[in-house]
Specification:
There is one protein chain. This protein is of the alpha/beta class and 259 residues long. The protein has 7 helices and 10 strands. It has an 8-stranded mixed beta sheet. Strands 7-9 form a two-stranded antiparallel sheet. Helix 2 runs parallel beside helix 3.
Length: 259
Amino acid sequence: MSTIIYASPIFGPIHSRRLGVSLGINLLPGDGKVCTFDCIYCECGYNKDHRAHSKLPSREEVRKALEKRLSDMRDNGPVPDVLTFAGNGEPTSHPDFAGIIEDTLKLRDMYFPQAKVSVLSNSTFIHKPDVFDALNKVDNNILKLDTVDIDYIRKVDRPTGAYDVEKIIEGLKAFKGKLIIQTMFMKGKTDEGEDVDNTSDKYVLPWLEVVKQIAPQKVMIYTIDRETPDHSLKKATHEELDRIVGLLKDAGLDASASY
């Protein structure tokens, strides 16, 4: 099984389908995965197969490593389009997430003020006031909502703890538009043979109604791009993604698809 475990606390830059030249910031250990989801499509593999043994990087370790890399990029290139919190799990789970965001914004302003700061999150910690406030400070607050069907969430996103989709939706609404919704669309089956196609109206239309209520500044939809731990999953087609983007735009929402 091919998986990607990212270095910590800084990796890349890499070229992101959605964000451009992206310098990655991984607030999880560099030797494993720590996440509140255990998605069957995760490029980092299943939680159980990649248990981390090292500690989380400290706020100071992140700050020093980030400044060193930004200084090198200023002198030698490339110029980053974005500094992206992603990596081996859920970045907002770090106890010093809010402080690290403050440090990152200051360093961004010093070295590459034109670069955006992005956070890719599964939304499970947006109820925490410090996380909520920090996410409101970044340029691209990218929050996951793959569906509003709880059975699908349990089958595909597989939360590792208590998960209330209605509370998540209310938390997303609380950003009052200062967020980007990110949604994975795919087809195929789980390795156990359960269907996971969420491109049909059964899943798209209820999701669309909720997204309209959330009223995000943008919706990013995407499909599988790398090998997944469940091997029977398939990419959504260009036509299926284009149809969903069309529905979003008809509803007055800015939307894009990554194929």
